[in-house]
Specification:
The complex is a heterotrimer of chains A (217), B (126) and C (289). Chain A has 217 residues and is α/β, with parallel strands linked by helices. Helix content of chain A is 36%, strand content 24%. Chain A has an eight-stranded mixed β-sheet. Chain A is globular and about 40 Å long. Chain B is mainly α and 126 residues long. Chain B has two domains: 61 residues; 37 residues, no CATH class. Chain B is 48% helix and 0% strand. In chain B, helix 1 runs antiparallel to helix 2. The radius of gyration of chain B is 38 Å and the shape is rod-shaped. Among the domains of chain C are: 67 residues, no CATH class; 80 residues. Helices cover 74% and strands 0% of the residues of chain C. In chain C, helix 3 packs parallel to helix 5. The chains are: A alpha/beta (217), B mainly alpha (126), C mainly alpha (289). The interface between A and C is medium-sized, with 32 and 35 residues. Chain A: InterPro entries: EMC8/9. Chain A: This is MPN domain-containing protein. Chain A: It comes from Tigriopus californicus (Marine copepod). Chain A: Pfam families: UPF0172 (PF03665). Chain C: It is a peripheral membrane protein.
Chain lengths: 217, 126, 289
């Protein structure tokens, strides 16, 4: 994972892989509401859990694991997906730091109440969690700005997080992947449940994203 | 398919020939007063062979059989396809954004106060 | 691929209710658009299918071409063609024109279910969920056996997080399709999400029924594992029942691991499954809304 392009100012950064997987998940199922979890390093999560929760989190969201496109509002498979992701992430030294969701309707940027509750449950184990809404209108084959609306969940409160940084040429990478229709390579937990041969960690797609990033960097 | 149609045609010919043979044999056995004898073995074998060939041909022409238990066919389906409701399809979803003609809103028009990638924080501007 | 194979593929997608709009449009562009006459009897159904798929991916050129051909053959006297023009208005976000068109269809044929359904879809597209629910409930009073409509209403209630009513809709689906494991699974998921020990126990029962209808349904196994674990963890459960539920947890976890081994899955869930088996009960009472 590359370090963020921050100048030392507290900032929430998203790695190219995390952002790409959120965008590709949204693109693979354009007519569905999709959601997934966000991962960051356990060490960063631990240090932030002990710091004051009033400041914006300074961390790098390393990866995104797509969970569902067909179980909106239903908890059993989401719980299973979360538990499985936590267990797999732990083996890589990562932990669940939040959730992302993309709404079904094009102009809808409201937070999903169900995902907000999932965010709250995650925040029970740390002092905060992230609830990211992906804005459909900002997605495109040639992306000009990031499409993320990030809210920090602490207890019952949701606070907007304004300072967001993306790693390197993330927007160019994601635009290239969308133009090449690489969203077909992505697997979410629902795909995995339909066919256990699907890799929920998307290791093949991760290599494709890395190759694209190296070429454009 | 053409092969099995040919087999079916041939088997119908065989059966017809067997029926004609039985009729001929019946005629001659009545004439020679040998009514009590059973049908000759070669005609029986020919009839059975014709029947078997016809059955094989028809089964192959008819195509794939459907499973009689409803659950077996349904177990091949997943929610992915069952959930689709063509009569209720919506079209104002993010496929709009993924079409080549789409132009996303410019970053300055967002008006949400979120920091843009290239925005240099004020404290670094002299 | 030749035209015959393309036609059969489109037919199978039509019959199986598959929503692969991008693939349909790609197939049209690469193969079928050159000579639609080669499609024979199925030409008009394919044109309709491609038109709807093109609306789904915002390919206005393909929509115009298909609708022009359909209009030339059937004229706007055909209700089915008019409905497609209504959907075209929806694709462009012109709700008023679409509604006007559907109203003219309903004036001509008040029992036309597809026009009514499109009006409900417009409510949903505009984010007017309560109105969509109201209209759909009135529609179902007239068309009680419409499985699609019950599924749509179930989804709308789930978006509203009204799990009791969503469960009722799912019950209707089960009554209409008592051999379909998917509806049983869906019902179990709704009941589990609704929360409370009774509902979770009901969820476990329905997951078990799903598994009996389709032994390959891994979601049912996961559901049994989760529901049994929640029930075994409950403080209000008497000890003999807790033991029974723990046995279900052990059984389902073994089954899940066996499935993963048989399918040579790229991930190994044994560690996270073990967490269910070895974790002491913590008294949590399910994922209520």
């Amino acid at each position: 994972m590359s370090s963020s392009e921050t100048s030392g100012e507290p900032a929430l950064s998203f790695s190219c892989r995390a952002y790409a997987k959120m965008a590709l998940h949204a693109a693979k199922y354009p007519h569905c509401a999709v959601n997934g979890v966000l991962l960051a390093s356990k060490a960063q999560i631990k240090s932030l859990s002990t710091s004051s929760s009033s400041s914006s989190p300074k961390m790098l969201v390393v990866d995104a694991i797509p969970l569902s496109h067909q179980s909106r509002g239903l908890s059993p498979m989401l719980e299973m997906g979360l538990a499985l992701t936590e267990s797999l992430a732990e083996q890589e030294g990562l932990g669940v730091v939040g959730v992302y969701h993309v709404n079904e309707l094009f102009h809808d940027i409201s937070e999903d109440s169900f995902m907000k509750e999932v965010g709250k449950k995650i925040a029970e184990n740390m002092s905060f969690s992230l609830v990211v809404t992906v804005d459909n209108q900002k997605l495109s084959l040639v992306m000009e700005s990031h499409a993320l609306i990030v809210r920090q969940c602490s207890g019952d409160k949701l606070k907007d997080v304004q300072d967001i940084i993306l790693e390197g040429p993330t927007l160019e990478v994601v635009s290239t992947l969308l133009q090449r229709k690489n969203q077909a390579l992505l697997n979410d937990f629902d795909n995995h449940l339909d066919d256990m041969g699907c890799d929920i960690l998307n290791r093949d797609l991760n290599s494709v994203i890395l190759q694209c990033l190296e070429r454009l960097d | 398919m053409a092969f099995f149609k040919a087999v079916l045609f041939m088997s119908l010919g065989v059966l017809f020939h067997a029926a004609y043979s039985v009729a001929e044999w019946r005629y001659y056995s009545r004439k020679t007063d040998q009514d009590t004898e059973s049908i000759p073995w070669d005609i029986i074998i020919q009839t059975l062979a014709g029947f078997l060939l016809a059955m094989i041909a028809v089964l192959n022409i008819a195509g794939e059989f459907k499973e009689i238990r409803a659950t077996v066919e349904l177990s091949q389906k997943s929610w992915e396809d069952v959930r689709n409701r063509p009569s209720f399809y919506l079209f104002n979803h993010r496929a709009m954004a993924l079409s080549p003609d789409y132009v996303p809103p410019s970053p300055s028009a967002s008006g949400m106060g979120r920091s843009h990638l290239t925005k240099i924080p004020d404290k670094y501007l002299s | 691929m030749n035209v015959q194979e393309g036609r059969e593929l489109l037919r199978s997608w039509r019959e199986d209710n598959v929503r692969r709009s991008m693939d349909v449009v790609d197939l049209w562009d690469s193969l079928l658009s050159q000579d639609p006459e080669a499609l024979g009897d199925e030409k008009w159904m394919v044109l309709e299918q491609v038109a709807v798929a093109a609306m789904d991916v915002q390919r206005r050129d393909v929509v115009e071409r298909c609708l022009k051909r359909l209009k030339a053959e059937f004229d706007l006297d055909s209700i089915r063609v008019r409905r497609l023009y209504g959907m075209r208005h929806e694709m462009m976000g012109d709700w008023e024109s679409a509604l006007k068109l559907y109203d003219t269809i309903l004036e001509e044929d008040s029992a036309n279910s597809s026009a009514r359904k499109r009006k409900i879809a417009i409510h949903r597209a505009k984010g007017e969920r309560p109105q969509a629910i109201g209209e759909l409930s009135r529609y179902l009073n007239d068309f009680l056996c419409d499985t699609e409509a019950w599924m749509e209403l179930c989804d709308l209630y789930l978006e509203e997080r009204d799990y009791a009513k969503a469960a009722y809709c799912c019950e209707e689906l089960i009554l209409h399709n008592p051999n379909n494991h998917i509806y049983f699974q869906r019902y179990a998921e709704i009941k589990y999400t609704q929360g409370g020990m009774d509902n979770i126990e009901m969820a476990k029962t329905y997951y078990a029924k799903t598994l009996s209808l389709n032994p390959d349904n891994i979601r049912a196994l996961y559901g049994i594992l989760l529901a049994s674990f929640q029930l075994a963890s409950s403080n209000k459960m008497p000890a003999p029942k807790k033991q029974e539920f723990m046995k279900m947890v052990m059984w389902s976890s073994k089954q899940i691991q066996k499935r993963y081994q048989t399918k040579n899955a790229p991930i190994d869930p044994s560690r996270f499954i073990q967490a269910f088996v070895s974790q002491p009960p913590n008294g949590q009472s399910g994922a209520s809304s």
